[in-house]
Predict the structure.
Amino acid sequence: MTAPGPVVTQDYAASELEAQPRPQGVAQGNAFTRFIGRTPVHIAIIALCLIWLIPTVALLVSSFRESQAVAGSGWWTALTPPFEFTLSNYDRVLDTNNLGQSFVNSLFVSIPATIIPILVAAFAAYAFAWMEFPGRGLLFMLIVGLLVIPLQSALIPVLQLFVSVRIGDQTLNGTFLAIWLAHTGFGLPFAIYLLRNFFGALPREMFESAYIDGASPVTAFFRLALPTSVPALAALAIFQFMWVWNDLLIALVYLGGQQSIAPLTVTIANLVGSLGQNQQLLTAAAFISMALPLIVFFTLQRYFVRGILGGSVKG
Amino acid sequence: MATVTFDHVYKRYSADVVAVNDLNLEIADGEFLVLVGPSGCGKTTALRCVAGLETISDGKLYIGDRVVNDVAPKDRDIAMVFQSYALYPHMSVYDNLAFGLKLRKTPKADIERRVKEAAGILGLERFLDRKPKALSGGQRQRVALGRAIVREPSVFLMDEPLSNLDAKLRVQTRAEIARLHQRLGTTTVYVTHDQVEAMTMGDRIAVMKDGLLHQVGTPQELYDHPTNVFVAGFIGSPAMNFATVKATEGEDLMLGSAKLNLSGAAAKAAADRPKGADLLIGFRPEHLDIADGQADTVSIPARVDVVEYLGNEELIHAQAEGTEIVALIPSDRRVKPGDQVNLGVPLEKLHMFDPESEQSLVA
Ligand SMILES: Nc1ncnc2c1ncn2[C@@H]1O[C@H](COP(=O)(O)OP(=O)(O)O)[C@@H](O)[C@H]1O
Ligand SMILES: [Mg+2]
């Protein structure tokens, strides 16, 4: 490099900036007519949201009412004065029914059972998408095939496996490790499938350019594939987290009924007596168990939408 | 700086897809070589072989004195500009430029200096903090160029870098790349399907078709002495006229019932043909003019169909004994549709080809 000074003349660079004038008035007029045109759609969407929200609101309202009141009148009557709300349901489930401990247990199950499968799946998906190896197509077909195998059919074999593995004087069964592994196994096929499709839609030339720039496949994975796939990873994290958080079957089978390590779902299932007594406690407990997934969903929802559309819709 | 040498290079995707077929080509140090040909002729494949993104099926590829058949792309000391730019979408322009240097553990101050320098050359200083998505097509294209030049490689590989730009920007950027090459003097292999790009930019041009290299030479050599019908028709715009003629006993040729009088080298080539044998003659539109009996000019009688006025020149579409002829002549000739004219082509501008082998008989 010798003589200084740009090869490109400045006016050329500047003209490019001005190349996209915005006709303000026209744009606004269009926006208004479009808004009017979409009104029926908006009404339909709002109606759908209300229908979806009502049961949740009912649950929330009921959880703050006395048990006699819940049994005696509809939840909407509580929305008119006199407002007679109470925290007693929350008090009871959190104190005497050990719900607090279960909440922590649930977190302890869900977080690793979300992170581990996504991490493993990301490596696998990257290899399936971008690395040549013999049997790649067949192996991927096999994994996609696993998607349709009902989880229940694997319960017993996996249980036998867990029982046969001993750690010290205990079997693997009934430990957190067991349930992490189980959720990882059951979650992997879908996670690999989703991520492979997302990685596969990334432009090949971006990776090739990186290889020429000096990147190894591992560097390309961490510096390119992962950062450009954040929407897909977030969407997958939401799916997996919700699934694990709401799971009862796998928790019951591999974790057992022990109170000290039971997650929320197991504890809530045990709340209600076989004759339906204590059902007012269920409202508070159910709302506690819903709260976290809602928070997770709302904080990550913009990724969720993009991740589902990602790869199929451009932009 | 380095040379690039293809030594009997083949690339077969399968038994019947031979994308590059026995390519022999030596690219000199500092040369700007344009690889041109119609779509699907194997240009990109040949370039990707140099980059190491495709393994070659047979033959040897040299960069400098080193055989690089089994050398990884990152160790070939090359940089490539992709047709789609292939920028890293989540990184700023600065990081896009710096990525390759960071991976090579270049000292930070060095990276900063080289990125700033490249950004200065390409007029990108103001955009260093932006993501590619916030850039126009032309700016993205320059980031792609910048990413190649910061690396200071010994060979640039460019795959149709202008094809995604609009016509005006393409002409500007064409000149920019040419200036860049003059300034850096780095060996460059430039792929395009556009013969105008090839003619204006290349020190030398290699014309490919169906995986085969047809001719290599300077733009002028290709224009003046195409070795076969394909190169003759591909290089030059508007394209060369071709007409099938019959040899006579003497040195003349018959175009239908019209007699073409030859002399010199062309006449010798014509005389070598037995009477009645077919010959393919070619002549460029811009070499035609209204004949008025000059010496050493072949005169072709034709009837004018259409006249396209271009300002100082006119593009004439005419019929000569059933052969369509295009001629580019000065506007002051005042030719009108329906006119019967004699179109003259200087003998030294007349090309002759064997109709079977399509090889030139005079080049
Ligand atoms: N990965 C591939 N697998 C099979 N055939 C390919 C592949 N890439 C290119 N080809 C074929 O090789 C030939 C040359 O392609 P290419 O080099 O891309 O042409 P171009 O000159 O347009 O750049 C084409 O016929 C194309 O179909
Ligand atoms: Mg191509």
Remarks:
- Residues 1-26, 310-315 of chain A have pLDDT under 50 and may be disordered.
- The radius of gyration of chain A is 27 Å.
- Strands of chain A lie at 166-167, 170-171.
